């Protein structure tokens, strides 16, 4: 499955340049560009980091319904004014919330 258009759309919605995202992912800007252009498929590990960075679900990268993509774009997390350190704190907090929600779900089963 291709993620091409959605990767770029979510990056733009979050207010990031390719350089900043590539730096965050510790990859070359050209590598990120290849993922966005579809000349290379992004590894799942990269997609997970991007989903956390942009505040979207992993499945949103593969969504083909334009209306669902539009909804996900509206809900994406705009973080253009945050420093890299603040961004790391936000992502760590999101991981804590996800873990809590999983534990809550399991305990209610």
Notes on the protein architecture:
The chain has six helices and no strands. With 109 residues, the protein is mainly alpha-helical. The longest helix is centred in the C-terminal third of the chain and has 24 residues, at 84-107. It is globular and about 45 Å long. It has a domain at 4-79: 434 Repressor (Amino-terminal Domain). 67% of the residues lie in helices and 0% in strands. It has helices spanning 4-14, 18-25, 29-37, 44-54, 66-75, 84-107.
Defining traits:
109 residues, mainly alpha, 434 Repressor (Amino-terminal Domain), 6 helices, 67% helix, globular
**Based on CA inertia axes, which overall geometry fits?**
globular
Largest sheet: none
Quaternary organisation of the protein chains:
single chain
Name the average pLDDT. Answer: 80
Identify the CATH class of the domain at 4-79: Mainly Alpha
Topology:
Layout: H1 4-14, H2 18-25, H3 29-37, H4 44-54, H5 66-75, H6 84-107
Quick recap:
The protein has 109 residues and is mainly α. The chain is built from 6 helices and no strands.
């Amino acid at each position: 499955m291709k993620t091409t258009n959605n990767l770029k759309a979510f990056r733009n919605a979050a207010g990031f340049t390719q350089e900043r995202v590539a730096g965050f992912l510790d990859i070359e800007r050209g590598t990120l560009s290849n993922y966005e252009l579809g000349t290379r498929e992004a590894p799942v590990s990269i997609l997970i980091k991007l989903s956390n960075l942009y505040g979207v679900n992993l499945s949103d990268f593969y969504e083909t319904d334009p209306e669902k993509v539009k909804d996900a774009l509206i809900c994406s997390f705009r973080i253009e004014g945050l420093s890299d350190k603040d961004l790391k704190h936000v992502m760590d907090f999101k991981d804590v919330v996800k873990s809590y929600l999983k534990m809550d779900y399991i305990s209610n089963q």
